[in-house]
Specification:
Structural class: mainly beta
Largest sheet: 7 strands, antiparallel
Strand content: 35-45%
Number of helices: 6
Number of domains: 3
Order of helices and strands: HEEHEEEEEEHEHEEEEEEEEEEEEEHEHE
Distance between the termini: 36 Å
Oligomer: single chain
Strand order of the largest sheet: 15-14-20-12-13-17-16
């Protein structure tokens, strides 16, 4: 099994959260005895359900994934899926429960079987009473049972749309539970997307727009199509790039992609022609847009530049890659990008201000991978709409804050948590 993922999940399980009695408790705990013979894989999936997870088998190993807040790791748009097609579907209203009944053994009542009843009032008004009854494996805490019930209702109410599409080798990078961004030009026409023609770390030979001060640092990028932008507006630009920075010592970094986000002004663009791919086809018009990214307070300061040290872009020599061999200590090597270059990187553009009247979004941008099927020369991907807001509704994390008030919450005697071993300097605990 992937022990490092389990270690990361264990840290999340240890976060202190309200226990519904005025004290704190770990996010997830288990008190369970296996008394019957079952298939090993089924037992693993039963155990992973304790922390809202699943186990799956691939490449000769078992991996575990947990449903929690995550950042997107990849982007898909009409230019990097087969035939440019995304197929959407929605869950049936009958499948959206509005009441959750969770069974557990209450440690405050001699571990007697107990139920926790949670009702979604808004859902009841819209769909009526639709109950779901389940058992929380190894749960002996009322607070944990309540969080489990809220998670069931929030997931069914907020994550109702699925999408399926086919991709090439990009699908080999994905794993169940990964969050991806989808920009579908057919659903959200103002979310532009495509592939790059070139990414340039220096623009000494390019004529800069007159509105960019000469003292500012500037990167530029050439898109695969010609676009028109409002000169008075700011836009958000996202670029998907491979990363080869191993300074963290984690070899898994080289297998993951990262999304770089920058801001540019509609006035900082040029229309260029030449031997460039455009209109998603080699036979395109050759008319493309060049975007300049400038530093300055309006664009987020000096950070508004492409990172050429940690990411593989345009054949730029990256000397920050560490290589380790059995014969000697780690040493630095040059890496010029290999099969990656400033071409064919995935990009997307949308207005920087979500309240802008130009901003049109007909669907979720973020989706969570739920299934990957290897097909002939392709990968079939299924994903579920990903709602980040549901996690705030499920758990309110306890925070230690300084206060002159004498109130100290009640800590249950059987949790092992007390004001003396949790708080230093006489601080008090309150909940955000």
């Amino acid at each position: 099994m992937d022990k490092w993922t389990l270690y990361e999940i264990a840290q999340f399980c240890d976060i202190l959260v309200p226990d519904t009695y005025g004290g704190l408790e770990p996010n997830f705990t288990i008190n369970h005895i296996i008394t019957s013979r079952e298939e090993a894989f089924k037992v693993l999936n039963d155990l992973t359900s304790v922390f809202r997870g699943i186990a799956y088998f691939t490449n000769g190993s078992i991996f575990v994934v947990q449903d929690k807040f995550k950042e997107p790791v990849y982007q898909f748009n009409n230019s990097n899926v087969i035939n440019g097609n995304f197929t959407y579907s929605s869950s049936s209203q009958k499948a959206r429960h509005t009441v959750a009944i969770v069974r557990y053994n209450d440690k405050r009542n001699l571990f007697q079987p107990t139920i926790e009843y949670i009702e979604d009032e808004e859902g009841v008004r819209r769909y009526g009473l639709r109950e779901i009854e389940t058992t929380a494996v190894g749960c002996t805490s009322r607070g944990q049972a309540r969080r489990f019930a809220k998670w069931i209702l929030a997931s069914e109410f907020k994550e109702t749309e699925t999408v399926s599409f086919s991709v090439g080798n990009d699908g080999a990078y994905l794993m169940p539970g990964d969050v991806v961004q989808i920009y579908d030009n057919y659903r959200s026409p103002l979310k532009y997307s495509g592939r790059t023609n070139a990414v340039r770390p220096l623009t000494d030979t390019d004529p800069l727009p007159a509105t960019i001060p000469e003292s500012n640092a500037v990167n530029s990028i050439i898109l695969d199509q010609g676009l028109n932008f409002n000169e008075k507006n700011l836009y958000k630009f996202s670029l998907l790039t491979p990363t080869y920075n191993l300074s963290s010592g984690d070899a898994s970094d080289i297998r993951r992609n990262q999304i770089q986000n920058l801001v540019f002004s509609g006035a900082h663009t040029n229309t260029i022609t030449g031997d460039y791919r455009s209109d998603f086809m080699e036979s395109g018009s050759g008319v493309c847009t060049q975007i300049f990214f400038s530093t300055g307070s309006d664009f987020g300061g000096t950070s508004n530049q492409f990172n050429f040290n940690d990411y593989v872009i345009t054949g730029y020599t990256n000397t920050g890659v560490n290589a380790e061999s059995p014969e000697g200590p780690p040493h630095s090597i040059s890496y010029s990008g290999g099969c990656y270059s400033g071409e064919n990187l995935i990009w997307s553009i949308e207005p920087n201000n979500p309240d802008d009247p130009e901003f049109v979004s007909g669907s979720y941008s973020n989706f969570k991978i739920i299934n990957i099927k290897e097909e002939e020369n392709a990968y079939g991907v299924s994903a579920l709409a990903y709602s980040t807001g549901k996690y705030d509704e499920i758990t309110a994390v306890g925070e230690v804050v300084t206060s002159e008030r004498d109130h100290v919450p009640l800590f249950p005697y059987d949790t092992g948590i007390s004001p003396t071993n949790l708080i230093e300097g006489g601080d008090s605990v309150f909940f955000a």
